[in-house]
Amino acid sequence: MKDEPLLEMRNVGKDFDGNVVLKDISFTLRKGQILGLCGENGAGKSTLMNILFGMDVIRETGGYTGEVLIDGKKVDFKKPLDALYAGLGMVHQEFSLIPGFSVAENIMLNREPSKGNVISKIFGKHGKKLETVDKEQIRSIAESALSKMGVELEINSPVSEMPVGHKQFIEIAREISKIKTRLLILDEPTAVLTESEADILLQSMKKLSENGIAIIFISHRLREILEVCDKVLVMRDGLVVDEKDKEETNILEIARKMVGRNVESMEDFSKNKSKRQISDEVILSMKNFWVDMPGEAVRNVNLEVHKGEILGIAGLAGQGKLGIANGLMGIYEAGGEVLYKGEPFSLNNTKYALEHGFAFVSEDRRGVGLLLDEPISWNILFNALQIKNVGIRSILGGLFKFRDDKTMDKIAREYIDKLEIRCTGPGQKVRNLSGGNQQKICLSKAFCLDPEILLVSEPTRGIDVGAKELVLEALRKYNSENGTTIIIVSSELEELRSISDRIAVTCEGEIFGILPPQAKPEDFGLLMSGEKIEEVGA
Fold first, then answer.
1. Please, what are the domains in the chain?
2. pLDDT tens-place string over residues 44-70
């Protein structure tokens, strides 16, 4: 059974507005085979799966190159429904369940079988729409799907009463309950599961494989990949950098391939990097810190930040790295013990954070960081105007206050020059700027507050290479000239290694380890994957 090719991808490529994200991807998946798909954020995994599943974003951005074959026949899915009809199922990281519906109802959602009744029979062939939902058959099919997984759930219970792990089982059961399902794509299915629940799921995957269902298992948990998969495909920077049977590889090799770059260049960088003396003074301390941020929940962070350092925070998507900054700034509910300069720091209050020397450059620059329909000057000065009265003119001893547009324009021009912001002037609307220039506006907005601690999330996301270097150089310069403590969160490990004094790695909502920037790339990969370095002989 496993010798028969089910899926073939041949020389698949994809670009978004000239930015190449997939290059010449080729692999074969056989019936009943489990493929482990590994790679950093941005490696191209999601785009590849979007192509396979016919997601709208692919068609709307010019399609793709190469070929996709099912059972040896070329296919080109125009929409996800086409993929479903061909026997493909996909379980995303985000749940799509209806809380008020039962387990069985969610499994059979939009596919509810019906049965005839007295009224429908009267109308004969025209009475189909008058048939009654067959609840018994719904329960039977749902029970069968759960049984195939080796999972027992109370099928009549509402999903709202289920723990997160059980919701994941329901999502998977919904896909395998479809009669035609032959290929199942699981995107980080164990990320929300406890250890015991993850073990159950892995055993379920093996059972499905034995029944001839092929599986693409996307995961950062490398031990799970090696336990359950037949072969492993490692992607990096839009390329397949390794494809091996699981017996031919190991955790350390996968981590090295997943994260590895030009090690020699990094060694050269480390030699040339100026030796920075990091203060022993702890300016910020977090103990048992938690943040309730959807998709990036922080569970138990313990971390000390030294005065004047640049601390990088790395980690895979959904592992909590973004939640730390958002929680400190009061964007999402947070708790635990936080000390700032040795004194308790009040959480869940953005104004308090700003007033006490914090500034934040959000990863969501268009949604949170910018006032898109306002001019550059207003964006740069907005927080400083409110918190520090920068750009405010007072008369009669402060009895009356006015916005000083001339001063605002003058300050804005200074930042435009310093950060080389390409624009027509302080009055230009931010919406009309490029992504890189918008990000420089966000930095200017933070610099204008003259912060003691600057939190920066994904500073180079969505901007070109030239703009990236300018943004990173601006952060380096601001830190060296002002002694500002900077905490920078990024999905780009190489970026963090180029700028940070230390790099903390998050995994499952905690700080899993802290490494110097010159540490081996594979060590970062291991920590990101939830592996203690010493446990694999590193």
1. 5-87+180-259 (3.40.50.300), 98-164 (no CATH), 262-357+451-538 (3.40.50.300), 365-450 (no CATH)
2. 888 899 999 998 889 888 899 999 999
